[in-house]
Amino acid sequence: MNTHYTSWRKSGHSDPNGHCIEAGHAADGTIGVRDTKLHGQGPILQFTQAEWAAFLQSIRSTQH
């Protein structure tokens, strides 16, 4: 993977024990998501802007 992500942001729904994710942005508009427990060394899921929007909508529609 050669995509460079910046501005990593930790989820506002993070677990106090450190189980959380971060999302970052690339210059081409893709969004990367990674697990914070791996300190930036693990895999990054890549989303297009449309995929990210659909993912967030799906999560929001299932929250109680």
TrEMBL record:
Origin: domain of life: Bacteria
Segments forming domain DUF397: 7-60
Region feature Disordered, mapped onto this chain: 1-21
Identification of the protein by name: DUF397 domain-containing protein
Organism: Actinomadura rugatobispora
